[in-house]
Amino acid sequence: FVYGWLRDDFAIILGQYISYYIYIWNLNTKNHWKELPAFIRLVLLLTPVLVIIYLLLTWDINGPRLFRNANIPLGLLIFGSMGQIIFTFRFIYQWFYSRHKGESVFPVTFWVLSLLGSAIIVSYGIYRSDPVLILGQSAGFIAYIRNLFILRKNK
């Protein structure tokens, strides 16, 4: 989140924001969430909400900074945001699929969504000259492609 904020980049912030609650969801699923003190859980749950309230209260300053940034045309911002949404929601897909199967599995579609979302984010990072996005997402390509080959080989 902080990196996206420092880059004035809503697409990065969006991806981190969605991922944040998925991490909490995973902690809860593994029964680790309740191990944290109640105060810490409350702070962790409320922090993103407080950030949104802050953004709304300072919209005249931060709205244009995030959504009318001369360095990130609206079309590019939408493109990068879609990449973040696709990449992050692969976990939601995997969760629904696993619940349907009655066991935790990573289906082909999970890896395809990983590859597609990551490719969009890398493209966005190249256009934005953002080495963190480029390197961070490019590294995953190897794992996603490998896993697709493994799944194909096992069929």
| Shape estimate | flat
Low-pLDDT stretches: none
As a percent range, the share of strand residues is under 5%
Strand count, sense and barrel status of the largest sheet are: none
Domain count, please report it.
1
Describe the structure.
With 155 residues, this protein is mainly α. The protein has one domain (2-153). It has seven helices and no strands. Helix 2 runs parallel beside helix 5 (74-101), helix 3 crosses helix 4 and helix 6 (108-127) runs antiparallel to helix 7. The longest helix is centred in the middle third of the chain and has 28 residues, at 74-101. It is flat and about 55 Å long. The model has no long low-confidence stretch (mean pLDDT 89).
Summarize the structure.
The chain is an all-alpha fold. It has helices at residues 2-6, 10-29, 38-57, 59-67, 74-101, 108-127, 131-153. The N and C termini lie far apart (39 Å).
